[in-house]
Design brief:
The protein has 5 helices and 2 strands, in the order ββααααα. The protein is mainly alpha-helical. The chain is globular.
Length: 135
């Protein structure tokens, strides 16, 4: 289940702040990406443009490589790397065939790449502000 988080954001002008829920509802059938105003579905292009690609740019990545496919590939790969059962990963990815999960989405990650990613994560964590945003 998703945690329902509340944050304060700048709203309007002149330093006005408003407290809002980032996740309006967190049931098993509820949306992961919800609009801030009313919890309605966010368009996938808006999520990429407003959230994922700016985050990729801040991390020093090429923003155009931040795609839904790259996120799904990363998710499947990380689950396998963490020791998840491949059938569980298949279910999470909602694939009808295990071959799709293992041959298309799960990527082999050499040790040298793991070390590079660990260094990047250390850098990101060292720049994280108490609010959870990256400096």
């Amino acid at each position: 289940r998703l945690k329902t988080l509340e944050v304060e954001i700048n709203w309007g002008g002149k330093g006005a702040r408003k407290r809002i829920k980032l996740v309006r509802s967190d049931g098993p059938q509820d949306l992961v990406f919800q609009s801030l105003r009313n919890g309605a579905p966010m368009r996938d292009g808006n999520v990429l443009r407003r959230h994922l690609r700016p985050a990729a740019l801040k991390l020093g990545m090429e923003p155009e490589k931040a795609t839904w496919r790259s996120l799904r590939t990363s998710c499947a790969t990380w689950m396998i790397e963490a020791g998840a059962n491949p059938k569980d990963v298949q279910g999470q990815m909602r694939h009808s065939r295990i071959a799709t999960t293992m041959d298309v989405y799960v990527q082999h990650v050499p040790d040298s790449q793991r070390r590079a990613v660990a260094k990047m994560m250390d850098m990101v964590e060292s720049r994280r502000l108490p609010s959870g945003t990256v400096n």
